[in-house]
Write a structure and sequence with these properties.
The chain has 191 residues and is mainly beta. The protein has a single domain, classed as Porin, CATH 2.40.160. It contains three helices and eight strands; from the N terminus they run αββββαββββα. It has an eight-stranded antiparallel barrel with strand order 1-2-3-4-5-6-7-8. The longest helix is centred in the N-terminal third of the chain and has 14 residues. It is elongated and about 50 Å long.
Length: 191
């Protein structure tokens, strides 16, 4: 309960911050959701991939951090497909005022990742090994510290299994919170 309270205090304290979202020293925490499907038909399927991530801005506009990927696809009588991944990511926000001002309070970015990933369907070929991903994205800041985003990303896996490579193109919708590191440190010290 104390950890939940600490997280809530951090989020609420950061909402009033006037600093730039992508400034050096800030932290980005959030997740993307893709491949979402909830069939309402008889014997329908469920399909979802969630991609939580956290990153630290090492300089203005450039963040490095980590990600976790968990995907599940299941339908009655067909078994379950499982996707997983863990690794490092880098995100670079484009600093071009003409491009970023097309839609107010928005930023374009590129994201890349490298990690250990797997794609294991209930039937058919599986691939487990080195996962690589890259793609463009767009973030719209609904407040100084909260961004809604869309990310079109190529994901590939090279490794072992019954199929040595696997690749797909996903469109993810995400929600990120940008926290000034000074607020996080002061909140933790108060606990």
């Amino acid at each position: 309960m104390k950890k939940l309270f600490t997280c809530l205090v951090i989020v609420l304290a950061s909402m009033g911050a006037a600093r730039a979202q992508i400034q050096a020293g800030n932290v980005m925490v959030g997740a993307d959701l893709s491949r979402f499907n909830l069939s309402l038909d008889d014997g329908g399927a469920f399909n979802m991939l969630i991609n939580p991530k956290a990153a630290w801005f090492i300089r203005d506009g450039l963040a490095i951090g980590g990600y976790l990927t968990v995907g599940l696809s299941t339908s009655k009588g067909a078994g379950s497909d499982l996707s997983y991944g863990v690794g490092g990511l880098a995100r670079y926000y484009i600093n071009d005022e003409n491009l970023n001002n097309l839609i107010g309070r928005s930023r374009f970015f590129f994201e890349g990742n490298v990690g250990i990933e797997g794609d294991n369907p209930a039937t058919g070929d599986n691939t487990n090994g080195l996962g690589l991903g890259i793609g463009p994205g767009w973030a719209y800041f609904i407040s100084p510290n909260i961004g809604l985003e869309a990310l079109l990303k190529y994901q590939g896996i090279v490794g072992f299994g019954s199929k040595p490579t696997s690749s797909n193109l996903t469109l993810g919708i995400g929600f990120q919170i940008f926290l000034p590191s000074s607020k996080i440190k002061s909140t933790i010290k108060q606990q």
